[in-house]
Write a structure and sequence with these properties.
Layout: H1 14-18, E1 21-24, E2 29-33, E3 36-37, E4 40-44, H2 53-56, H3 59-65, E5 70-76, H4 77-80, H5 90-101, E6 105-115, H6 124-127, E7 135-137, E8 143-147, H7 152-173, E9 179-186, H8 193-197, H9 210-216, H10 222-230, H11 237-245, H12 254-258, H13 287-311, E10 316-321, H14 343-349, E11 355-360, H15 366-373, E12 381-385, H16 391-402, E13 406-409
Parallel strand pairs: 4-5, 4-13, 5-6, 6-9, 9-10, 10-11, 11-12, 12-13
Antiparallel strand pairs: 1-2, 2-3, 7-8
Helix pairs in contact: 7-13, 10-14, 13-14
């Protein structure tokens, strides 16, 4: 078993048993809430629904009436800290009140530095100061609307806001356990939406900001290489093969250690046999750039996760916008997020993150995706999937086949 899987652990103190936690059994990992195993029959609200307590007032009971036991709902940095250093948790408190009255549990989504690969939910005071909070750049030098994962000031500001949120949760929910888990960020990674939708050349394989370009030419961090060495026989195939093909080096730049990447094969969208060709699933274009990005996104998130665990150690997870046929090179999906082939990079960089989760809308890939996430130390949760007529039937299969801890259609408060 991978060494960092010990991050899912049961501590000896009585206090840790009183809050929601992950507990390992002989055959699985369970989410334990108030001393009992808990399966999340969940629904995720639309992204901005919880931005209005008035809008949400009738929603809570409607969610309970759908036979949910858990609601997954966003808390955005821009609403928590509209002015730097001044925090407002009224919306969080209204969410707790509504969920409790309907006898529901909550999973919070922290829309901090990144949401869907961009930085739309950061406060205005962050958006206006690009010198202090630098943005990632595309390969051609054009600036993006995404905070750079190498931005130290961005990370510190995000960590402070998230820590204040955790302190508030501990104070108002530490004895009631309405909130049972938190997602840090959302579908993070560098992304060039136009290249994906317009089938143009990709520009977002990694962050190409000045700081990122400098780091890409420098030595791979020793702690990552030591992790690869310590877990050599357990590594995921893509990372293991790239490292091995370049001599399993214990020092060198990113390209010296993992090799010079290649682009994806061109996809002919008019090919009648295209949908039958699954070879893209085993292709890893721009892998070195993606490994580099994953390291820096994960190190950024680790700072938030470690601080949160010190305050109130409920389960923390991150989620991924998935690699798919039409967009199977990083940058056409967010490059650097917790894809299964990057788990080793995330394990090495972010040991305080408990779980990695897919946002699964391409249901034709259901088993391929979930088998990738069903790995030792990573019990399967699916916080976001289609809200569709076949969703209920698919949930039975997911719970039975993958011992899933959470199944959650998206946008369940309307339109599905």
């Amino acid at each position: 078993m991978i060494a960092v899987c010990c991050s899912i652990a049961v501590t000896a103190s009585a206090d840790s048993y009183e809050i929601p936690h992950l507990e390992k059994t002989k055959t699985s990992v369970q989410l334990v809430v108030d001393g009992k195993p808990y399966i999340m029959l969940a629904g995720e609200l639309h992204n901005s629904s919880t931005g209005s307590s008035h809008y949400m007032a009738p929603i809570w009971q409607r969610m309970a009436d759908k036979n949910l036991n858990t609601v997954i709902a966003a808390v955005s940095w821009e609403l928590v800290e509209p002015q730097e250093g001044k925090f407002d948790f009224q919306l969080v408190d209204s969410m707790l009140d509504g969920a409790r009255k309907a006898n529901l549990r909550l999973v919070l989504l922290w829309f901090g530095s990144w949401k869907n690969g961009v930085s739309t939910y950061v406060p205005g005071w962050v958006k206006r100061d690009q010198k202090r909070f630098p943005l990632a750049r595309y390969k051609d030098g054009e600036v993006t609307n995404t905070l750079s994962p190498l931005g130290e000031n961005s990370m510190k500001a995000d960590k402070q806001a998230f820590s204040k949120l955790m302190e508030h949760i501990k104070a108002v929910d530490g004895s009631q356990h309405t909130i049972i888990a938190i997602q840090i960020e959302n579908e993070m990674g560098t992304l060039d939406m136009m290249s994906s939708y317009m089938n143009k050349d990709n520009r977002a394989m990694r962050d190409y900001s000045e700081a990122a370009n400098k780091a890409f030419g420098e030595a791979v961090p020793a702690e990552l290489l030591q992790y690869l060495k310590n877990n050599k026989t357990l590594l995921q195939h893509a990372v293991a093969e790239a490292w091995k093909a370049n001599g399993s080096k214990m020092k060198g730049s990113w390209e010296e250690v993992f090799g010079k990447s290649q682009p994806a094969k061109k996809v002919d969208r008019n090919d009648p046999n295209l949908m039958k060709d699954m070879s893209w699933q085993k292709e890893y274009p721009w892998l070195t750039e993606e490994i580099f990005n994953a390291w820096y996104y994960a190190r950024y998130v680790e700072q938030l996760a470690a601080a949160a665990k010190d305050i109130y150690p409920i389960p923390l997870y991150v989620n991924a916008w998935l690699k798919q046929l039409w967009a199977h090179e990083p940058g056409k999906y967010p490059s650097g997020g917790p894809q299964p082939h990057l788990f080793d990079i995330w394990h090495a960089a972010a040991p305080h993150v408990d779980l990695y989760a897919p946002d699964l809308y391409a249901t034709s890939l259901f088993d391929w995706v979930l088998s990738g996430y069903d790995q030792p130390g990573n019990p399967v949760i699916m916080p976001e999937t289609k809200s569709s007529a076949d969703g209920a039937a698919r949930s039975f299969y997911a719970f039975g086949r993958y011992n899933m801890l959470c199944y959650s259609p998206f946008g369940i408060d309307g339109g599905g």
